[in-house]
Every structure is written in structure tokens, then in C-alpha cells.
Amino acid sequence: MDYFTGPFLSKARDLDPAVISHLRHCRCDVDIGDEDISMRFRLASLFDAIWRSAVDDGIALPNHSDWANDFRAFCNQLMFPWPEKRLRHFGFQCTLVNKSTQNATAVYELSNRPSL
Fold first, then answer.
1. What is the pTM of this model?
2. More confident residue, 64 or 9
């Protein structure tokens, strides 16, 4: 979680090509403006993109982990409650786009675009 609310968000804000590539590879819808970014994602896709980015940054992650348990822990840490203060620190806001009864299928948008 610390990686997401620190280096990952910082790199996303700065439109880092590697982070953008990981997001797109993991099926996150990324829309880049002149100086802003909007990302639509399911939590499973975001989790995978963060994992790939952390590995690229040399962070030692478990080789023999249980994806379902790791994903569940990620969701619990991320959503209860959402780290809104950390998101705002990097200029982001998160909104629920498509509600679902399962965390894995709900769609969220993370954006640093000014509200209209």
C-alpha cells in the first residue's frame, strides 16, 4: 500500500512512461491530457499494474504468494477507508464509476483533472 500511495501515484502524476505502460498492459483505461491523467480501472487491474511497477522498481515481492489473498488484503487496505488524503497530496481524486457487489468488478476512476 505504501508503494501505491507514494512512488506509484507520484510517477502516474508525472506521466512516467513505465507506469503508464504497466497500467495499459493490465487493462486500465488511461487517458492522458496535456498535463493530467485519468485512469479507469477495476481493482484487480490496478493491483496487477502496481505489482508490475514495484517489481520494475526493484522492490522485493514474494515469489510464492497467493494472488487471491494478496488482492483481498490490498482491497482491504485501500478501501477501508480510501487514502483520500494521500490521493489529494498527489492531486488525485477517486470516484466510483460502476458499482458492483464484488470489489473485483467495480470500476473506479482516478484522475488529477480539475473538476468542472
1. 0.85
2. 9
